Amino acid sequence: MNPRLTLVGSVVGAVIVALDGTVLTVAQPALRRDLDASFGQVQWTSTGYLIAVASLLVFAGRLGDRYGHHRVFGIGMLGFGAASAGIALVPDIGWVIGLRVVQGVFGALLQPATLGMLRAAFPADRLRTPIAVRTAAIGVAAAAGPVLGGALVAGPGWRVVFLLNVIPAVVFGALALAVRPPRAVSPARLDIPGPALLAVCLACLVHALVAQPGWVWTAAIGTVTGAAFVRHERRSTSPLLPPMGAPPARANSRVGDIGSRAVGSALGMLVAASAALSGSLFVGTFLLQGPLGLDPFHSALVSLPLAALMVIAAPSCAVLLRRAGARRTTTAAMVVLALGILVLSRASAVPALCVGFALVGAGFGTVMVAATHVVVRQAAVGSAGVAGGLQQTAMNVGPVLGVAAATALMGAGGDPELPLTVLAALALAGAVPGRALPARPDPTIDDHGQSKDRTPVPARP
What we know:
Number of strands: 0
Distance between the termini: 22 Å
Strand content: under 5%
CATH topology of the largest domain: Growth Hormone, Chain: A
Oligomer: single chain
GO biological process, one term: response to antibiotic
Organism: Streptomyces cyaneochromogenes
Pfam family, one: MFS_1
Number of helices: 14
GO molecular function: transmembrane transporter activity
Order of helices and strands: HHHHHHHHHHHHHH
Largest sheet: none
Radius of gyration: 21 Å
CATH class of the largest domain: Mainly Alpha
CATH architecture of the largest domain: Up-down Bundle
Region (Disordered): 437-461
Helix content: over 70%
């Protein structure tokens, strides 16, 4: 597939997932009233999706490495769109929950593929801009989602919300499946026990973090399966993940430098940044609509600088990476993110809140582009799917951690200062792993013609 068309498909896939999550949040109250559902049932429309997607992302990435990212992306898009259309027609809440789980499965297929396709279509030294464009598009979706969702719920109704992504999902899914990349001579062996153990571990972790009934048991099961996964990986001749921190020469050549300290540190920064962001947004919602007395619409307007600066930060980060390197860029961005959260913790007027949200958006948007660039660039083309799965897993687990921490720290009183201060400290702590990131852009990674999906790109003059 043409690199430009691949970029468009990657952006559309990422936007569909981001938009789906934001519009669902707005639609949930109307959905509950219309289907006569309990609050617990409505919560499972989000929790069921999250458990399904988080548990399968890395395995889905390996499927893309094995069978081709365009093919897995196409199946994921078509399935995601079909599940969305089904939700718009359901008669009761049980069907919504079930189809949201199905949607999570197909979402897990398409999300790592959006990054895997980019790694396969663009040389390593030209990944900054495509990743920045993808991140900026996600920022636009995050800003437009609540407004668009609110307008549709107030007009045609909540069911129309789920029809938004059906047409683009079908169109780009069909286009992706029409691609016939050459088969690899020695495709990576698919190791089923490892991904299965990791899926159970991640599913239990997410279930425990959202404090569902029985979380103690699921936490225990997650710990046991996590230990079993580590043991299996150490003994496997074809591990899903190489040991983090292993020198490139010792890592499996099929996975390049995906097991390097730089990748592990970048993933840690993504978890910390997304946890700090999501926890702050959770607390900020109560701050805006509680002590400050703003209605939901005006609350959304006050927080718009976050999305706007996230969009602006994405292309700016591509320039910073080229000039300053990932280490200084991510470290400075995490400090900006922490500063923005501290401003929010002490703000009592709208202008100060806007400044805080703008700093949070600028810091997070920069970290997301820079850390994602490190993860994807360090991976050989043959393991780009696993790299994408790891990045998406970090971006799914982090928000669960952040919201869980914010909920526990707010307590019954709902005081926002303590949780926001702790989340700012988390963002600062997340800057520490940045020391393991490359100080300057690395030399171009040679994939030795291993890509199944790549369309040749003319060399830069």
